[in-house]
Design brief:
Elements lengths: L10 H14 L5 H8 L3 H14 L19 H9 L13 H8 L13 H4 L6
Length: 126
């Protein structure tokens, strides 16, 4: 919810609000709402309780406005973005663990056998 009290929602969330409102107003049964939303009845009941407690804002995704889970921290991303081609990358010591899978040399020649790719990956690159 922003400063003026408005809620920003997607079209999918708007459709969800309409269906949950119908359940709260007894125009739609829980199992019918579950079928329309492709959720289980228990999850629809949870949404109904959230709607009754918070209104339409309770049905908005809690992930909105947050950085992604796989986003690099600024202490890692800034040195990479400002690096000139052909120079050595200097990273803080706490960042090496984050980038270890990226920095390891996984392009070593491998034996071509009938074993899956997962099993032939070098142990230091996983």
């Amino acid at each position: 919810m922003n400063a003026r009290g408005f809620v920003t929602i997607s079209m999918h969330e708007l459709e969800r609000v309409k269906i949950i409102e119908a359940v709260v107003e007894h125009r739609l049964k829980v199992f019918q709402a579950a079928e329309r939303l492709q959720l289980c009845e228990r999850q629809v009941n949870r949404l109904v309780h959230r709607y009754q407690a918070s209104g339409p804002a309770g049905l908005v995704s809690g992930k909105r406005g947050r950085p992604g889970n796989h986003q690099l921290s600024s202490s890692v991303a800034k040195p990479i973005a400002t690096q000139k081609p052909g120079t050595t990358l200097a990273l803080p010591s706490n960042c090496i663990g984050v980038l270890a899978p990226v920095l390891c040399d996984c392009r070593r020649p491998r034996l071509t056998t009938g074993i899956s790719r997962r099993r032939t990956a070098p142990s230091d690159c996983q």
